[in-house]
From TrEMBL:
This is Solute carrier family 6 member 7. PROSITE patterns: NA_NEUROTRAN_SYMP_3. The keyword Transmembrane helix applies. It is found in: Membrane. It is a multi-pass membrane protein.
Length: 557
């Protein structure tokens, strides 16, 4: 399930592509639940006052309590965090569930929202990158507009400076193993590393596209956007803490608690709260849809490359519709009364050590099996006229692929396993049972076990059943996809050992079952916008989730 030319370079690496497919499937299963939540919150945001504000009639008993003030009088005081917590419990669940083993019934409003969310994904990805690439022009730029507006609005609020100070300060004593796990998961999410979606979308790009330029833009843009988005979050949270006369750390949450509990309550304190709430949840919706575009594109492209008979319009529609409906049925477990526990479990383990191991072997496969020098030469051949600044970056990339990246991933893996052995997963005050954590570990193993499994299958096929030679040597590359030197027809590529160039229509190329770059040719700006959708604005909780002042979720949130 790697690109065909990658298969010809290292057939034993097929398990890396299958592992990416497993990771993308697990993430797609639960990620669309977030989109369903945003649908629900957007619909509720049209109410005035907001259902999670203290002005809502059903929240007034929660927001005010009478305490003796002397001489038979009473003073009404506000009770922080209760309205949003109660509202989130109605949406996220845990009201009538005792834990992981007691999911309870499916909540019908969220089931309808989840069905609508999968219908949107199906319609937007039905025509492939041609249609979804156009949609990304809006969904990738709209969040930037919203973030700029939120930053400007937050800067005008009382107490915002305290929130910004909390955001920029660090408590190094909290730099524990869990923080490394959360940081790794976040950066892999934000860049789309190890999911296969970017690889699939890049396979539609022009053969001579400047991949180094795109890499630098995405990497630098990711860091800058993540940093800038933190100001939009913590300036408003600082105002919320100022209004409630509590430290910012009391209102800052992590995970779904920030996006669906703390921040909505902070927006409810602003004038015109309905407008700000609609704007915020529409932004979350567009970012969630962008992320699923990449995941679903990676899944469908991988399957259709393996089974070309599915590429017809009718068969592709049936396959994509069946896939979305299957994900919908499986996702119903996550919108039950206790669905948030299952959501937390899948979120914690689907992109944990399994994703890191897949990325590690992908890096090792390129650096040592295929050859880092060969890989760099392929990049130079693709770019054709490599500018001087581009040439000077090649040694840096070599050092990263051979030393820095594998070493960093091994370091993170050590801390992830240390965290798994020393702490118990929890949601609020609920401690997950050991069988639940064992199930989560199995989800992580499911992705990385594909690597040795498919390597054994590949070697077994190569040796015609002679399993004694499975561990003898590694298949070395002998082929590469490269532009033919001196071709008189521009734009024609050869996948050796083809004797003559073929037009890039995805036609079979020789006996090696390889293909030249496929149609359609996509404008690089469209692909770049697609990839920028993975920038971590979608996970606005990341600012608290990866912050060195990491705190466990507040009770009841």
């Amino acid at each position: 399930l790697l690109r065909p030319c990658e298969l010809s370079c290292s057939p034993s690496s097929t398990g890396i592509g299958v592992g990416m497919l497993v990771v993308s499937s697990l993430v797609s299963l639960y990620y669309n639940v977030i989109i369903a939540w945003t649908f629900y919150y957007v619909s509720m945001s049209f109410q005035s006052p907001l259902p999670w504000s203290c002005d809502a009639p059903h929240n007034r008993p929660l927001c005010q309590a009478q305490v003796p003030a002397g001489q038979g009088s009473f003073l009404a005081v506000s009770c922080p965090l209760l309205p949003s917590s109660a509202s989130s419990q109605r949406v996220l669940g845990v009201v009538h569930s005792s834990g992981l083993g007691d999911p309870g019934p499916v909540r019908e409003p969220l089931a309808l929202c989840l069905l609508l969310a999968w219908a949107v994904i199906f319609l937007c990805t039905l025509k492939g990158i041609r249609s979804s690439g156009k949609i990304v022009y809006f969904t990738a730029t709209f969040p930037y507009v919203v973030i700029v507006v939120l930053v400007i609005r937050g800067a005008t609020l009382e107490g915002s400076i305290e929130g910004v100070y909390f955001y920029l300060s660090a408590d190094w004593s909290r730099l524990q193993s869990k923080v490394w796990n959360d940081a790794a998961s976040q950066i892999f999410y934000s860049l789309g590393i190890g999911f296969g979606g970017l690889l699939s979308m890049a396979s539609y790009n022009k053969f001579d596209n400047n991949v180094i330029r795109d890499t630098l833009v995405i990497g630098i843009g990711n860091c800058c956007t993540s940093f800038f988005a933190g100001f939009a979050i913590f300036s408003v949270l600082g105002h919320m803490a100022w209004r409630k006369k509590v430290p910012v750390g009391r209102v800052a949450d992590s995970g779904p608690g920030l996006a669906f509990v703390a921040y909505p309550e902070a927006l409810a304190l602003l004038p015109g709260s309905s407008f700000w709430s609609i704007l915020f949840f529409l932004m979350l919706f567009t970012l969630g849809v962008d992320t699923l575009f990449g995941n679903m594109e990676g899944i469908t492209t991988a399957v259709m490359d393996e089974f070309p008979a599915l590429r017809g319009w009718r068969r592709k529609s049936l396959f994509l519709g069946g896939l979305c409906f299957a994900f919908y049925l499986l996702g119903l477990l996550l919108i039950t009364e206790g669905g948030i526990y299952w959501f937390t479990l899948i979120d914690a383990y689907s992109t944990s050590f399994g994703l890191i191991i897949v990325a590690l072997f992908m890096c090792l496969g390129v650096a040592f099996c295929y050859g880092v020098n060969q890989f760099c030469q392929d990049i130079v051949d693709m770019i054709r006229q490599c500018p001087p600044w581009c040439s000077r970056l090649v040694p840096y990339f070599k050092a990263c692929w051979v030393i820095v990246t594998p070493g960093t991933l091994l370091f993170i893996l050590f801390y992830i396993f240390l965290d798994l052995s020393g702490t118990r997963l929890h949601y609020g005050a609920y401690q997950f049972p050991r069988w639940g954590q064992a199930l989560g570990i199995c989800m992580g193993v499911l992705s990385c076990i594909q690597i040795p499994l498919w390597a054994a299958v590949s070697r077994g096929r190569e040796l015609s059943g002679s399993w004694e030679g499975l561990l003898v040597g590694v298949d070395l590359p002998s082929l590469t996809c490269r532009t033919r030197e001196g071709s008189s027809r521009a734009g024609l590529q050869v996948c050796p050992p083809c004797a003559a160039a073929e037009d890039p229509k995805g036609r079979p190329c020789g006996k090696i079952q390889s293909v030249c770059p496929r149609e359609p040719k996509v404008d690089s700006s469209k692909l770049l916008g697609f990839m920028l959708a993975h920038i971590p604005v979608a996970l606005l909780a990341s600012s608290a989730h990866v912050h060195l002042q990491y705190r466990p979720p507040l009770q009841g949130s």
